[in-house]
Amino acid sequence: MTNYWFRPKRYGYGATPVTWQGWTVTIGFALAIAAVSLVLRLTDKNRWAVAALLAFDAVVLGALVIICRRKTDGEWRWRWGGQ
Questions:
Q1: 9, 12, 8, 16: which is closest to 73 by C-alpha?
Q2: Rg of the Cα trace of the chain?
Q3: pTM
Q4: At a CB cut-off of 8 Å and minimum separation 6, what does 25 contact?
Q5: How far apart are CA 2 and CA 19, in angstroms?
Q6: How far apart are CA 71 and CA 38, in angstroms?
Q7: What whole-number distance in Å separates Cα of residue 13 and Cα of residue 6?
Q8: What is the tens place of the pLDDT at every residue in 10-67?
Q9: Which of 25, 33, 39, 72 has the fewest CB neighbours in a 10 Å radius?
Q10: Is residue 69 a contact partner of residue 5, using CB atoms and an 8 Å limit?
Q11: CA separation (Å) from 1 to 4, 41, 44, 63?
């Protein structure tokens, strides 16, 4: 039995969390992005730090998308409100 953490959105594209695991992944993503951005803000702002921040954001966002797609009950496609 597969336990889905997300369900497809009723309007638009993507998925929304429906279990505590889905909410944990979503909130963890937001906290990771905020923490790394705060550390960058507190340190010197050179080009390498900004590049590292963008690379980190891209990797974490990619991981979030992969997890969400694998744990969604149904496919991701554009929806207009009907099933």
A1: 8
A2: 16
A3: 0.78
A4: 5, 17, 64, 67, 68
A5: 13
A6: 30
A7: 13
A8: 888 888 999 999 999 999 999 999 998 888 777 766 778 788 888 888 999 999 999 9
A9: 39
A10: no
A11: 10, 44, 49, 23
